[in-house]
Specification:
This protein is an alpha+beta fold. 20% of the residues lie in helices and 23% in strands. The protein has 21 helices and 47 strands. The longest helix is centred in the N-terminal third of the chain and has 19 residues. The radius of gyration is 34 Å and the shape is globular.
Length: 1045
């Protein structure tokens, strides 16, 4: 309603409730306690609350203490000393049907504190206990969760918030049910899908709630670049890209004058006013009526407003509370009709296991109209099909569920069948069946692998193939340090495992006995998560441990097993989801397995070309750092090798004498091909046996079941027999004699400037463990030292590139074959693979960079040189936070959303292209990013990049604008799902004939992982940030969007 100068603008929201249908509509009114501090007629207190127009009122806000992790009263003088809490609940005396709640959180409380709260079980317990005491003390009817927002990195959240918040909701629900007070639990949630994806297990949280309040406001803001209404009901023709879903109102408004023009948007169904350059969007009686009609047509359960103190409660423009009266009258007599709300089921792997506590689950005393939402509307059919699913299946059993006493049991009750269980949901038992032949683990309350479950049928604790690097999918047991029956102390090294990066030591933190080795040494391509061994407790009989079904022991690979097939087939270890081999496949005659270069005599070790990067298939010996006859200490560098990425140092971890060089400097060798020979100290190094075969033979495409396979040429997963395990270091890393240790220990020693002789190892004889170094660092309170860099090897030769020769006219042209470098060959292979396997889609947008150029000039005057590419990198990082669906990887037919933004920057070098990484770019300032990029580019061009500086990344940027390229499209860098191609700036005339500088940017994206509208959303956000780069200087976009008075 408007009259003269009056503009009524409360924020109306939809609310979806989880109680049953055929109930009166719910009108939830938020009350902001700070409204009392407004001056004059704007002051709003408890006495102004129209309790007859609301069914529920929520007191906003209380907080949480980050010291005691208990309820924190934010305004104790008003809320407690002056009795605002008690006065608020006394409204029920005047309005008997009114329900009161209190909300915790709000925008001003931030998110970091709440992320820390839910991350620790003890903190959650402390807070929930204080909430129960608070509810008893002040007499509220309900509790509203208003954390804005779980998982939001721009609000201090973290990746783990999604699971931890779900645990918190379950625990507070159980605590409320135990009290038998009928307390309601409600929640305010954002409308943006990316916010829901990053912070909420939606179906699971909904089933624990009495009401869900959807914050359907702030759909437009100052980031849009123009003024617009903040809550249009329907999409308008000019809503594009991200603004179709996320739209807000922007400028600071002055008091309306007498010449304001009033308009009504007939499509969005919202009013607005303007006078000159001043503009305001608001709500009036007409727009609210449209929204109430929409609620009823959509069969929602009611409405919620933020906030009632923003209505015309004084009646300055006519009747008091005109908008609240419209809502109340519009929903009078409206009963919530039946409606099926469909939501995408959460896969079992994506849903965290429910938490349990020592508190009994007691039948809720909430009104009988409450109905849990996890039950299907139709009774599922129970069939004998063996088809496997990927999540637990609920079922309603006519007789069995009635026998489960949920009132005197915990949330989960095991079934007689190993693969099923019961879940008690507010006093009612629902039976679930575990998928994929998993069985119910009664200790952890999850569907688990059979070997992990604590049922009588399964004994022993499992050791699974661990994931020892971010990209590791398979591994090879290089060596077992323990034998069956050996005792394992906490921190003991159990095995060396070849990953896709290097050989890493597996250590166990629990005291036990190694009972059974499932996978022997040398068996390759064991998938991460596969069973490799069994342990038992120290006081148990390790000899009586039972083998899980469909799992058999795979013996180690020996020299004889490599050169000739075994006499009988043995089954490889399989996961519970893998079916056992059929008799036909296991009895068929396997073809002859491939052979490796012959093993040398005792004491002689044949060294193969190591795989120093995941994509390396061959390497070039740049320089031998040892001469024939020289002694080798553990960790000594013996060669510098040109890989497909950079020049890297090859070290040997075993003591010996460097006896024979088989591949001279400047020569290329395939991975696995023999390049040198070492012997033990006491042997005659001049008398060595050079194998006649130095290259590994090709691997058959399909290996028969039970036959150990040799590594394929160019893609080895384990070193050949007799080849020492390589480790990778940069040329600047000095060799450290003394105790034997792995890469993780070496990295710690270098980072903290320590020597291995200073620390006593507790592992196998003369072995230093990572836990030893960490304990020493903590005890001595040692700090990290600044990293040092070293110049490139002096003898490194650049490839000779012939100069273009003049060809006389009339004479046929001549040509010369130029050898393709190792790096360029790998680049061609990977880019070809990307174009073949990825369905590339493209989106292009023009961005005005005049403001960036102005800021750059100002910074340059102060002696600070920041490039346009630095601004683009910073803006891209924040755009990826706003649009996390772009910050993904596509691997194994799965989309993996990455928690941090690591941006790969394409750098051209003489031998090809390399992409060093700006890690965690959102946490860095523009100056930090600029410095980081310059350092990485310099290292790339001089061949000094470390592997960890260019392996990985979640998004790539390629900028050819500096070369005058106006526009181009880049090829996606596997396994990333998008790359941004940046062109040069060009001066053009806009529609007002003013000169502007436009820059074209094209996004290449993987259509399997990213939709067209998501790509458009990302480019729209990027454009908004770059065209107003003050966001990048001043701080996070969200902080500006919701600036406080």
């Amino acid at each position: 309603m408007t009259s003269g100068k009056c503009v009524l603008a409360p924020l109306l929201l939809l609310v979806v409730l989880v109680y049953a249908a055929n109930q009166p509509a719910r009108i939830t009114c938020y009350f902001s306690n700070w409204a009392i501090y407004r001056k004059g007629v704007g002051s709003y207190g408890v006495a102004d609350v129209p309790g007859d127009l609301c069914t529920h009122v929520i007191y906003s806000f209380i907080g949480v203490s980050n010291v005691t992790w208990e309820v924190l009263v934010l305004d104790p003088d008003l809320d407690v000393d002056k009795g605002n809490f008690l006065a608020f609940n006394d409204l029920r005396t005047k309005y008997p049907r009114l329900k009161t709640s209190v909300a915790v959180g709000g925008w001003g409380e931030g998110g970091k504190k709440y992320s820390a709260l839910v991350s620790v079980k003890a903190r959650r317990d402390s807070f929930i206990k204080s909430v129960v005491e608070f509810m008893h003390k002040y007499g509220f009817d309900g509790f509203d969760l208003d954390w804005e927002y779980p998982g939001a990195s721009d609000r201090g959240g973290r990746f783990s918030d999604k699971d931890n918040f779900f645990y918190f909701v379950e625990e507070i629900r159980r605590a409320f049910d135990k009290e038998k007070k009928g307390w309601e639990l409600t929640i305010a949630v954002p409308m943006a899908k990316f916010r829901l994806d990053e912070g909420y297990h939606v179906p699971e949280i909904c089933r624990n709630m009495d009401a869900v309040h959807v914050m359907a406001y702030d759909l437009r803001g100052n980031w849009a670049g123009f003024a617009d209404v903040h809550s249009p009901l329907y999409r308008r023709p000019h809503d594009q890209w991200a603004y179709e879903k996320l739209n807000v109102i922007c400028t600071r408004l002055q008091a309306p004058g007498s010449n304001w023009t009033q308009k009504f948007d007939d499509i969005g169904k919202v009013p607005y006013m303007y006078q000159g350059t001043q503009w305001v969007g608001y709500e009036n009686v007409e727009s609210v009526k449209y929204k109430i009609d929409f609620i009823k047509e959509s069969r929602y359960a009611g409405a919620m407003v933020w906030a009632i103190d923003m209505d015309d409660f004084q009646g300055l423009c006519g009747d008091r509370n005109p908008l609240m009266n419209v809502i109340h009258e519009g929903l009078k007599g409206y009963n919530v009709p039946e409606k099926d709300f469909y939501t995408t089921p959460t896969p079992e792997w994506a849903r965290p296991p429910s938490t349990t506590d020592n508190v009994q689950i007691i039948q809720s005393t909430r009104p009988s109209t409450y109905k849990p939402t996890e039950l299907s509307t139709q009774k599922p059919e129970i069939t004998s099909s063996t088809e496997e699913t990927d999540r637990s299946t609920p079922s309603i059993n006519n007789g069995e569920t009635d026998k489960i006493d949920c009132e005197n049991n915990d949330k989960f009750v095991p079934s007689k069948n190993c693969n099923s269980y019961y879940e008690c949901v507010h006093g009612r038992a629902v039976k679930f069946t575990c998928p994929n032949k998993l069985i119910w683990n009664t200790k952890n309350n999850v569907c688990d692998w059979p070997q992990n479950a604590d049922r009588e049928e399964f004994q022993g604790k499992s050791i699974l193939m661990p994931s020892l690097s971010p990209t590791m999918e398979k591994g090879t047991i290089v060596k077992w340090f323990k034998k069956e029956g050996d005792k394992i102390e906490a921190g003991d090294a159990v095995a060396d495992i070849q990953t896709d990066k290097a050989v890493v030591t597996l250590e166990l933190e629990d005291e036990s006995i190694l009972a059974k080795i499932i996978v022997g040494e040398g068996i390759q391509d064991i998938k991460v998560g596969s069973l490799i061994a069994l342990t038992v407790d120290v006081d148990e009989d390790w000899k009586s441990v039972e083998m899980p079904d469909n799992v058999s022991v795979t013996p180690p690979v020996t020299a004889s097993s490599i050169t000739s097939p075994p006499s009988s087939s043995t089954s490889p270890p399989s996961s519970p989801t893998s079916p056992p081999s059929s008799p036909a496949s296991s009895s068929s005659s396997p073809p002859s397995p491939p052979s490796m270069p012959a093993q040398g005599p005792p004491g002689q070790t044949n060294i193969g070309m190591p795989a120093l990067s995941p994509t390396m298939t061959s390497g070039t010996i740049v320089k031998w750092l040892k001469k024939e006859g020289e002694k080798i200490e553990p960790g000594d560098a013996v060669a510098e090798i040109q890989t497909d990425k950079a020049v890297m140092t090859f070290e040997i971890e075993d003591e010996g004498i460097f006896a024979k060089i088989l591949v001279p400097e400047g020569s290329q060798a395939e991975v696995g091909e023999l390049i040198a020979i070492t012997v033990e100290k006491e042997m005659d190094w001049k008398n060595v046996v050079v194998p006649t075969i130095t290259k590994p033979t090709a691997t058959p495409e399909v290996a028969p079941v039970g036959v150990p396979t040799a590594p394929p040429v160019g893609v080895p997963t384990a070193p050949p027999v007799g080849v020492p395990t390589p480790s990778v270091a940069t040329p600047s890393a000095p060799s450290i004699p003394g105790q034997v240790y792995g890469l993780a220990v070496r990295r710690l020693l270098e980072e903290y400037g320590l020597k291995s002789e200073e620390i006593k190892g507790t592992g196998r004889p003369n072995r230093l463990l990572k836990s030893d170094v960490l304990s020493y660092i903590q005890t001595k309170n040692i700090k990290k030292i600044a990293p040092k860099t070293a110049p490139p090897p002096k003898d490194q030769k650049k490839p000779d590139i012939p100069l273009k020769k003049h060809v006389p006219s009339g004479v046929p042209s001549t040509y010369q074959d130029i050898p393709v470098s190792n790096i360029r060959s790998i680049i061609a292979k990977r880019l070809g693979e990307s174009k073949r396997t990825i369905p590339h889609s493209y989106a292009t947008i023009d961005i005005k960079i005049d403001k960036i150029n102005e800021i750059r000039k100002e910074l340059k005057a102060d002696g600070i040189n920041i490039s346009i590419n630095d601004f683009i990198t910073k803006a891209t990082a924040h755009a990826l936070v706003e649009c996390p669906f772009i910050n993904t990887l596509y691997k194994n037919d799965q989309i993996i959303q990455m928690p941090k933004v690591d941006i790969s920057i394409a750098v051209a070098i003489e031998s090809g292209l390399i992409t060093p990484i700006v890690f965690d770019a959102t946490a860095k300032s523009i100056l930090d990013i600029s410095k980081n990029i310059k350092e990485l580019a310099e290292k790339a061009k001089t061949g000094r990049l470390k592997p960890e500086e260019f392996q990985g990344g979640t998004f790539s940027i390629s900028n050819l604008g500096m070369f005058g390229i106006k526009q181009f499209r880049a090829i996606i860098n596997l396994p990333q799902t998008a790359i941004l191609a940046v062109g040069s700036g060009r001066e053009e005339l806009n529609v007002t004939l003013q000169k502007v500088t436009n820059m074209s940017t094209s996004l290449s994206y993987d259509r399997r992982a990213i939709d067209e509208d998501q790509a458009a959303d990302f480019l729209a956000v990027l454009k908004a940030m770059l065209e107003d780069p003050s966001f990048l200087i001043a701080g996070r976009l969200r902080a500006l969007r919701y600036a406080q008075d």
